[in-house]
Amino acid sequence: MTNAKFLYVGTKNYFTNLEILKHNLKNLNINFEFEFTDCYPEKLNTHFDGIRLAEPFQNIAFQKKISKVNTLISRIGIVDFIYQKNLNWWPSLILKEALHLAIVHKHQNLSSRERALIIGVSIDSKIAFDVLVLMGFKSFTIVGESQEEANEFKSSVQTKYFSLDIEAISSDKVILLPGVHSIVVNTWNLNKKSDLLTDLLYFNYLKGKGLVLHFYSDDEKDPLISEANAIQEKTISRLDLLIFKEIAALRYIIDIDESKLKSLSIL
User: Fold this and answer.
1) Do residue 210 and residue 180 come from a single domain?
2) pTM for this predicted structure
3) Who's near 38: CB < 8 A, 6+ residues apart?
4) Which of 13, 42, 132, 236 is 20 to 30 A (C-alpha) from 219?
5) What strands lie across the sheet with 50-53, from one edge to the other?
6) Are residues 102 and 86 in the same domain?
C-alpha cells in the first residue's frame, strides 16, 4: 500500500468528495490521508507530502515565492498545489494537468481538427486555452461579455501563440454560431446569465458528439450538464474537475497508472 498525505488550506466545501476519492483509491492500493486548515501555514510541515490551496490562498502562495516557478505560474499569478521533493517545496498549478486528464479520460476521440469554444475570459479560460493548444487545437471561438472584452482576450493569447485561428465574439452572438466546435468550455456562472444559458442549451455550436466542460456546475442536475447528458454528449462537471485535480496532485507524489483510472467508480 502506497501512502500520501495532503493538507487542504481553505474551506471544506471547496474540496468536495475527498472521502469518496479516498475509498476509491484503496482499489489502487493507495492510502490517501488528509487534514484541513483555514489559514495558510507559516511553516511548511514535512508531515505532509503536499498542500492543496483554495482561494484566496492561491495568491498568497504565489507571493511567498516558495521556489522557482514555471512560465505558466508566473503568467497566471497563482499556485494551487505545493509538493515536497528532494527536501524542497515546489509550487504547481494543477488545474492545467487536471483539465488534460479529464478531457482525455472523458472523451478519448475528441477531434482537435474542429474548433474549440471557450466561454469567458477568466484565468480559468486562459488555462483551458493553453491545454487545448497543447492538445492540438488550432481554431478557437472566444466569447466575452462584450466584443471589446473578447477582443482583449484574443490579443492577450496572440502574444504567445501566433499562428492560431481565433474568432472573438460577444455573448449575445452564441446563438448564431454554426456547429463546428468539438468542445465547449464554460467558465461563467450561468445562474447569473439566464439568456446565455438558454442559448447554450440549443447546442447548435457543437459538431457531432462533442464535449461540454462546465466549470460552475454543482451537480448532474445542472441544466447545461443534464441537457448535454440527455442528448448523449460527453460532459465534465465542476465536481468531476475537482476529483481530477486531486488525482493530478497525487501524481506528483506517487506513480498512478492512467490506464487504471477507469477502475475508479467516482470517475
Assistant:
1) yes
2) 0.91
3) 9, 10, 11
4) 132
5) 30-37, 2-9, 50-53, 81-85, 88-92
6) no
